[in-house]
C-alpha cells in the first residue's frame, strides 16, 4: 500500500513549474543536474506540514494553495529613484550596494566603489560556468529539507560576498532584493557570505517592494554564512512587504573560533513568513547574538525558528526576539539550543516576547534546550503581554494623547530588540520601519 | 485655583472606599502639603487628580480654575496644566528620553494652541533646564528612566515638570528613596518653579521634604478626609507626635 501523502495542488504545481522552466534557469550542466536532484528530493519530501514537529505552528502544506510561477528572467523597468523609494528608510544607510530586481542582478544599481577588502560577485554568473565541485557547493546547504531543496531547484541569482582576512569594511554592504512590477511570481535567491579571519563587516540583506507592484508574491531566500576565526559579522535581514507575500528565508551560519556574529531580522507586512536561522559553532569561544523584531496584523503570520548548535566548548549565545501582534496576527517562535556532550562552559540565554494588541492575536513559543553537557549555563524565557496600562497612563499624564502614547509604547517594546543593532543608521532605519507600520494602522 | 469639593472615591473593581468627603482649596501661587499615614488616601488623591483609570468618583468634584476636570482624559488635564510627579517614575525601555520629552512638549503645546518646537529650540530649552537639575543631555539620549538611580528618576520627573510648564503641580512622595543631596537638588528644582500663577500640592509622609520645600499650608489626611489644616509648623508637630491622634480618631 502506498503510504505517501497525496500530493497537494501546490506540490504538483511546483514540480510542473520546474519541468517547464528547468531549461531556462541559469546553470552549467553540473548545476542543472543538481537542480534536477533537488526537485526530486522535494518531490519525495513534499511541503512541510504541521505533523512535522519543526513546522507544527506553520502548516505550509495547508497554507500554500497557489504556487506563483518562478521569475526566470526579468526586464522590469526600474529607475534608481524607484529603487530608493522601495528601500524606504534603508536608503539613508550609507552603504555599498548590490541590487537584484525580482531575483536578477541589476549592475546599474550597484555601488561597490572604494570597497577595499570586499569582493562581490553574483550567483547567476557563477552558476552558468560552474564545474561539478562548484555546483555541489552552490546547491548543497546545511539546511536540508523541502524549502532548501526548492531553493536549489529554482534559485536564479544572489550575492556571493567575500571579505578578505583582516579587512575592516568602512561601510556596510546592502544586498537589496527589490520586488517590482505587476507580475505575480516567485523569486528564489541564494547568497553566500564568507568573512575572512579577523575581518569585520556589516551586511544588510533587504527584501523590499516598490509600491504599486503586484500585491501577491512568493520568495525563497537562503543565505549561507561563514565567519572566520576572530572575525566579526553584523548581519541583518530586513523584509518589508504589503501583507500578502509568502517569505521563506533561511540563514545558515558557521562560526569559527573566537568569532562574533550579531544577527538581526526585521519583518513587517509579510503574509506568511518563515525565518529560519541555523548556527553552528565550529571553534571555541564563538559569540553569537541573534535578535529580531517582527510586526504582524490582519492574518499575517511570522515564524522564527532557530537552531543554535553548541558543538564545541566555551561558546556564548544570546537571543532576543520581539513581536507586535495586532488583529489576527500570529507570531511563532521556536528556539532550539543544542549543547553537545563536549560543549562545556556553554553560556546560552534566550528570550522571546510578544506584545498582543488584539484579543484575536496569537503567539506560540517553543523553547527547546537539548543539553548533553553538565557544566553549562542555559536559560530561556517567553512572555506575552498587552500594553501596560500604567505606562500608558504615565505617558498620557505628560499630555501625550492615547493613540500617540500607544504608538510610543509599541515603539518602546520593539525598540528594545532594535537596540541590539549597532550601526546607528540601520538602527534609525529600523525604527522608521516600525513607526511606518504603526502609522499604517492609524490610517486604518 | 484648585478646589476639591467633598470628594468621594472608591476603587472601581472593589467596594473599598478610599476618599470619604475630601475638601481642599489651593489658590494659585501657594504650596500646600498633604501629610498623612500610609493608607490614608494620599496617592489615590494624586492619581485621581491626574486622571488614572481604576478609580470611581462617587460624589464631589474637582475644579481647576473653575472648570471640572473629572471627565477629562489624563492628556487633556495635562494640557490644562495639571502635572503629577510620580512616586515611582516609570521606565520606558526603547524610547529615548529626548524623544519622550519632545513628544510630550509638542502634544501639550499643540493642545494649548502653541506652535511645535523646532529641534534647536527644543534642545536649547532641555539643555538649559536640565543643567539646573544636573541632568546632562547625554543622559536623556538613553531610554526614559532606564538604569537611572532613584535620585536620577526624581530629577527627571522635575525636568519634565519644568519643561511642560504646568500650573498645578502635584508631587507624590517625591522625597521617597532620596538621599539628602538628591533631595536638595529636587527641592531646588521645585522651588525654582514656584510662581504666582502656579499652585503646588506636595504629598509626603515625612516632614523632611518640607524643610526644603516650605509650604504655605499643611493638611493632614487620614481616613479619606482632611483632618486638620495648619501652617508649616503643623508638619513639625506631626514629626513629634506622629499620626496616632488622627488614625485613632479614624478608627
Automatic annotation (TrEMBL), chain B:
Keywords: ATP-binding, Nucleotide-binding. Residues 2-248 form the ABC transporter domain. Signal peptide: none annotated. Gene3D superfamilies: P-loop containing nucleotide triphosphate hydrolases. GO terms for molecular function: ATP binding; ATP hydrolysis activity. InterPro entries: AAA+_ATPase, ABC_transporter-like_ATP-bd, FeS-cluster_ATPase_SufC, P-loop_NTPase. It comes from the Bacteria. Belongs to the ABC transporter superfamily. Ycf16 family. This is FeS assembly ATPase SufC. It comes from Hyphomicrobium denitrificans (strain ATCC 51888 / DSM 1869 / NCIMB 11706 / TK 0415).
Amino acid at each position: 500500500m502506498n503510504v505517501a501523502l497525496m500530493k497537494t495542488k501546490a506540490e504538483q504545481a511546483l514540480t510542473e513549474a520546474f519541468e517547464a522552466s528547468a531549461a531556462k534557469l541559469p546553470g552549467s550542466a553540473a548545476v542543472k543536474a543538481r537542480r534536477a536532484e533537488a526537485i526530486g528530493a522535494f518531490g519525495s519530501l513534499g511541503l512541510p506540514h504541521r505533523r512535522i514537529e519543526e513546522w507544527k505552528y506553520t502548516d505550509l502544506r495547508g497554507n500554500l494553495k497557489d504556487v506563483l510561477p518562478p521569475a526566470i528572467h526579468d526586464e522590469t523597468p526600474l529607475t534608481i529613484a524607484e529603487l530608493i523609494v522601495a528601500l524606504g528608510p534603508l536608503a539613508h544607510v550609507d552603504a555599498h550596494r548590490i541590487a537584484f530586481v525580482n531575483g536578477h542582478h541589476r549592475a546599474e544599481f550597484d555601488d561597490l566603489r572604494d570597497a577595499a577588502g570586499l569582493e562581490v560577485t553574483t550567483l547567476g554568473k557563477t552558476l552558468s560556468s560552474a564545474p561539478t565541485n562548484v555546483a555541489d557547493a552552490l546547491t548543497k546547504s546545511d539546511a536540508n529539507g523541502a524549502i532548501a531543496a526548492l531553493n536549489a531547484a529554482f534559485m536564479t541569482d544572489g550575492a556571493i560576498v567575500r571579505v578578505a582576512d583582516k579587512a575592516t569594511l568602512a561601510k556596510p554592504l546592502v544586498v537589496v532584493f527589490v520586488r517590482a512590477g505587476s507580475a505575480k511570481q516567485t523569486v528564489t535567491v541564494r547568497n553566500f557570505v564568507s568573512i575572512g579571519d579577523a575581518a569585520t563587516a556589516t551586511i544588510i540583506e533587504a527584501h523590499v517592494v516598490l509600491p504599486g507592484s503586484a500585491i501577491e508574491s512568493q520568495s525563497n531566500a537562503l543565505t549561507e554564512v561563514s565567519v572566520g576565526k576572530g572575525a566579526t559579522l553584523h548581519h541583518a535581514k530586513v523584509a518589508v512587504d504589503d501583507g500578502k507575500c509568502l517569505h521563506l528565508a533561511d540563514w545558515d551560519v558557521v562560526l569559527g573560533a573566537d568569532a562574533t556574529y550579531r544577527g538581526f531580522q526585521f519583518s513587517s507586512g509579510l503574509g506568511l513568513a518563515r525565518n529560519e536561522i541555523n548556527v553552528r559553532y565550529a571553534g571555541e569561544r564563538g559569540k553569537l547574538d541573534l535578535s529580531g523584531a517582527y510586526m504582524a496584523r490582519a492574518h499575517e503570520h511570522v515564524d522564527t525558528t532557530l537552531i543554535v548548535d553548541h558543538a564545541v566548548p566555551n561558546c556564548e549565545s544570546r537571543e532576543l526576539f520581539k513581536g507586535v501582534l495586532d488583529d489576527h496576527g500570529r507570531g511563532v517562535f521556536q528556539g532550539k539550543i543544542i549543547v553537545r556532550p563536549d560543549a562545556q562552559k556553554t553560556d546560552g540565554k534566550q528570550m522571546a516576547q510578544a506584545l498582543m494588541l488584539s484579543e484575536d492575536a496569537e503567539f506560540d513559543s517553543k523553547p527547546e534546550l537539548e543539553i548533553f553537557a553538565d557544566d553549562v549555563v542555559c536559560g530561556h524565557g517567553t512572555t506575552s503581554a498587552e500594553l501596560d496600562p500604567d505606562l500608558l497612563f504615565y505617558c498620557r499624564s505628560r499630555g501625550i494623547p492615547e493613540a500617540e502614547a500607544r504608538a510610543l509604547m509599541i515603539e518602546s517594546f520593539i525598540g528594545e530588540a532594535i537596540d541590539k543593532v549597532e550601526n546607528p543608521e540601520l538602527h534609525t532605519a529600523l525604527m522608521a520601519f516600525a513607526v511606518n507600520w504603526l502609522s499604517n494602522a492609524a490610517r486604518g | 485655583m484648585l478646589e476639591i469639593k467633598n470628594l468621594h472615591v472608591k476603587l472601581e473593581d472593589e467596594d473599598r472606599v478610599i476618599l470619604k468627603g475630601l475638601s481642599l482649596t489651593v489658590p494659585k501661587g501657594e504650596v500646600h502639603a498633604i501629610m498623612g499615614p500610609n493608607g490614608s488616601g494620599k496617592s489615590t488623591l494624586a492619581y485621581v487628580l491626574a486622571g488614572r483609570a481604576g478609580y470611581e468618583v462617587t460624589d464631589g468634584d474637582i475644579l481647576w480654575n473653575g472648570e471640572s476636570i473629572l471627565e477629562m482624559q489624563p492628556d487633556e488635564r495635562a494640557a490644562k496644566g495639571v502635572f503629577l510627579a510620580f512616586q515611582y517614575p516609570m521606565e520606558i525601555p526603547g524610547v529615548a528620553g529626548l524623544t519622550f520629552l519632545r513628544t510630550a512638549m509638542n502634544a501639550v503645546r499643540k493642545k494649548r494652541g502653541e506652535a511645535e518646537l523646532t529641534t534647536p529650540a527644543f534642545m536649547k530649552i532641555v539643555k538649559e533646564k536640565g543643567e539646573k537639575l544636573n541632568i546632562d543631555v547625554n543622559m536623556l539620549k538613553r531610554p526614559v528612566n532606564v538604569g537611572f538611580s532613584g535620585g536620577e528618576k526624581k530629577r527627571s520627573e522635575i525636568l519634565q515638570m519644568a519643561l511642560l510648564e504646568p500650573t498645578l503641580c502635584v508631587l507624590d512622595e517625591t522625597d521617597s528613596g532620596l538621599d539628602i543631596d538628591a533631595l536638595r537638588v529636587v527641592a531646588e528644582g521645585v522651588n525654582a518653579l514656584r510662581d504666582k500663577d502656579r499652585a503646588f500640592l506636595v504629598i509626603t509622609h515625612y516632614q523632611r521634604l518640607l524643610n526644603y520645600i516650605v509650604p504655605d499650608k499643611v493638611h493632614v489626611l487620614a481616613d479619606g478626609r482632611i483632618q486638620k489644616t495648619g501652617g508649616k509648623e503643623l508638619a513639625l508637630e506631626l514629626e513629634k507626635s506622629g499620626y496616632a491622634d488622627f488614625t485613632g480618631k479614624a478608627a
